[in-house]
Amino acid sequence: MDENERYIAMVTVNDVPWHRLTTPYGRAAEFPRYFAVLKSMDDLAAVEDALCELTINTEHQSTLWHATPFAMIFLVRIFRRARAAQPENEIARMIAGRLLEHFRLIAECVRMGEEMEHAEPLPRFSDLLREEYLWSEVYDEEADELRWEADDVFPADLFYSFYYYSAQVLASCEGELKQ
């Protein structure tokens, strides 16, 4: 197992500074709560809300975001749990189906990204969390808006890494996705 595969297998929700990772609509600070809702698989309305929030905040108009590859790690883990629980849990069946659809969408985004000219990815998945790439520790809507207006919001290697490492996570469960 290489370093990136080990990272994908071992990283915990608490290892990721979600409040410093971008989504199309702001920051990913609420992602841990959504993952917990999905893992519980017991409140249909809350699960549907969490799925909606996670899917719209990890892909937007074929664009992946800083939070996407990290979210994919935990969504794949939830997908595995849901698949195992689906024979006796209708909510688990719904989660597995919706996540499979989302994974197909992410895979299509990755495929389109691969067809374009792109930089090399960062060498390690964990490099996406280097301080220079993280947004401020304290959320400041004005400061974030100014950063979005800058010409080079994400360096090319970081931006391509959103796609590359999302693909790596999907590759880690390729056999399960084919079933």
Describe what this molecule looks like in 3D.
The protein is mostly helical. The chain has helices at residues 3-10, 31-40, 44-58, 68-85, 90-115, 141-149, 156-171, 174-178; strands spanning 22-23, 26-27, 59-60, 63-64. It is 60% helix and 4% strand. Strands 1-2 form a two-stranded antiparallel sheet. A two-stranded antiparallel sheet has the order 3-4. Strand 1 and strand 2 (26-27) form a beta hairpin.
Compose a concise summary of this entry.
By secondary structure, the chain is mainly α. Helix content is 60%, strand content 4%.
Give the helix/strand layout:
Layout: H1 3-10, E1 22-23, E2 26-27, H2 31-40, H3 44-58, E3 59-60, E4 63-64, H4 68-85, H5 90-115, H6 141-149, H7 156-171, H8 174-178
Antiparallel strand pairs: 1-2, 3-4
> What profile does the largest beta sheet have?
2 strands, antiparallel
Mean pLDDT across residues: 94
The strand order across the widest sheet is 1-2
What global shape is seen? globular
The percentage of residues in β strands lies in: under 5%
Order of helices and strands: HEEHHEEHHHHH
- CA gyration radius, whole angstroms: 16 Å
Count of helix runs: 8
- Helix % is 55-70%
Number of strands: 4
First and last CA, distance: 23 Å
Instruction: List segments where confidence is low: pLDDT < 50 over at least 5 consecutive residues.
Output: none
Structural class: mainly alpha
Features:
single chain, 179 residues, mainly alpha, two-stranded antiparallel ribbon, 8 helices
